[in-house]
Design a protein that fits this description.
Layout: E1 2-10, H1 11-17, H2 20-34, E2 40-44, H3 55-60, E3 65-70, H4 73-83, E4 87-93
Antiparallel strand pairs: 1-3, 1-4, 2-3
Length: 106
């Protein structure tokens, strides 16, 4: 299993009200310069929030929602501080209640 960290908010907030695209583009550029593999993803309507262990977070989010997911906890902490009005959490997947969060991206 892999531990994933995330920030979640309304999709509109993440994609229209915040400069998320700019932040992620800069992060991709930095990773390319460092020869590092991408370890973060923007996921719209993330299925992992339907799991029982994350239901409290889902209840607080206006729908439709989206999340930035990463295996790098430091990056997600940065995103929480940068975006401010997001909820932060983590989970392990794949598990019995949480499918691979990246499966829908392929």
């Amino acid at each position: 299993m892999t531990t994933y960290h995330f920030v979640a908010a309304s999709e509109r907030f993440l994609t229209e009200e915040e400069p998320l695209e700019e932040v992620l583009k800069e992060r991709r550029r930095h990773y390319a310069e460092e020869g590092k593999d991408i370890d973060f993803w923007l996921i719209r309507s993330p299925a992992f929030l339907n799991s029982p262990e994350l239901s409290a977070i889902k209840r607080e989010l206006p729908e439709p929602f989206a999340a930035v997911v990463s295996t790098d906890s430091t990056f997600i902490t940065f995103m929480k501080l940068r975006l401010e009005y997001v909820l932060q959490g983590r989970f392990e997947a794949p598990s019995e209640s949480i499918p691979d969060p990246l499966a829908s991206l392929n």
